[in-house]
Design a protein that fits this description.
Length: 206
């Protein structure tokens, strides 16, 4: 699959080939859903917690006598029935992470890239670099390229000026190629790859 390569200024910079085994698959929504669910579950803190009746500081004296009051038979003020009592079957700190085979993770990433290629939402640029960390200037360039919501993937290192200028622009994410993931690809309309990122992706899946 051939695709045009441009510069940040919108000028033509030749053509590049996208590997069919990475960008030419027929996307499967079930594989993408499994990966996104795994990724979001993995980043959950799992620190939610409540106090049960054993952790409530209250008197252990019986509330009232067992018989003769006409009320229910209570022996503790720490039970869940009373205001300020312990929570019954509440959440406890735990890990929400679950397993996903490595082969499925690799396949999901290929399907996410293929989905963007199929929608014509991939833009390849020669490099992601600017002269100074000027957010306004970079935003104007993105406007000319039609990038209102985009994930920009660079090589192993992101140029400092580009990173500083892009971080204040809404709906624009910049990641090194090591951080490429399905969730960030799908949550943005466009996927922008530098020439270095494209080479690294192809080497990664060889």
């Amino acid at each position: 699959m051939q695709i045009s390569m441009t510069t940040l200024q919108g000028k033509q910079a030749g053509e590049v080939a996208l590997a069919d085994e990475i960008f030419g698959l027929d996307p499967r929504a079930d594989i993408l859903q499994r990966y996104v669910r795994w990724q979001l579950a993995k980043r959950r803190a799992g620190t939610h917690a409540v106090k049960n009746r054993a952790e409530i500081a209250r008197t252990t004296k019986k509330l009232y006598k067992q018989k003769g009051t006409g009320n229910a038979r209570h022996g503790s003020a720490r039970v869940a029935q009373f205001r300020g009592g312990g929570r019954a079957f509440g959440p406890l700190p735990r890990s929400h992470e679950h397993g996903l085979p490595k082969k499925v993770r690799v396949l999901a990433l290929k399907h996410a890239l293929s989905a963007k290629a199929k929608d014509g939402a991939i833009l390849v640029i020669d490099k992601a670099s600017i002269e100074g960390p000027k957010t306004k200037a970079l935003k104007e360039q993105f406007g000319k390229l039609g990038l209102a919501s985009a994930l920009i993937i660079d090589g192993a290192e992101i140029e400092a000026n580009f990173k500083l200028a892009a971080r204040a622009i809404p709906n624009i994410d910049v990641l090194p190629v090591q951080g490429l993931n399905v969730y960030d690809i799908l949550r943005r309309e466009k996927l922008v790859l530098t020439q270095a990122a494209l080479q690294a992706i192809e080497e990664r899946f060889k």
